[in-house]
Amino acid sequence: MNLTRLIYYSQRNPSMSLSMGELLEICKRNNSAMNVTGMLHFNGNYFLQVLEGGRAEVSSIYHRIAADQRHLNIILISCQDVRERIFPTWSMGHHEGMEGETRGIFLRYFPSNTVNPEAVSADSLLDFLQDVSTELV
The CATH number of 3-133 is which of 3.40.190.10, 3.40.640.10, 3.40.50.1240, 3.30.70.100? Predict the structure, then answer.
């Protein structure tokens, strides 16, 4: 089995209701059953997510997300085989918001307060997620 890491970026569909608590519980249950780990950042308008696990399992989850009407304009930023997981202990780590310290971390990796998902480096996104994940431990 190849270990795969997938990173995507999407907009929240404002016409659909969203309960982050429900979404996270479903993600954790499904990911755990498939031995997939990862991290989700949600700033209120955009999702940035990393999924790590077997290639078929990560692909299956990504296709389910792509069909989910809570997401618009999904952009696959990176999908590659990796040697090890960055988020090995979380079926789905979660970070929300862009205030205070998070904004400072964000501006360390990006030139402005917004991400252009078509021009951003996957490495910068991973570094940002790793940094904000330390706030969760």
Answer: 3.30.70.100
User: Cβ of 109: how many Cβ atoms within 10 Å?
Assistant: 17
List, in sequence order, every residue forming a beta bridge with 12; answer none if it has no partner. 71
CA-based nearest residue to 79, from 101, 98, 60, 92: 60
Q: Give tens-digit pLDDT for 8-47.
A: 999 988 888 878 888 888 888 888 899 999 988 888 888 8
Q: Kindly state the DSSP code that residue 109 receives in the 8-state scheme.
A: H
Domain boundaries, the chain: 3-133
Coil vs helix vs strand at 43: coil
Q: Report which secondary-structure segment, H or E, holds 105.
A: helix 100-109
- The distance in angstroms from the start CA to the end CA of the chain is 29
For residue 78, is pLDDT > 70?
yes
Question: Is the entire prediction scored with pTM above 0.90?
Answer: no
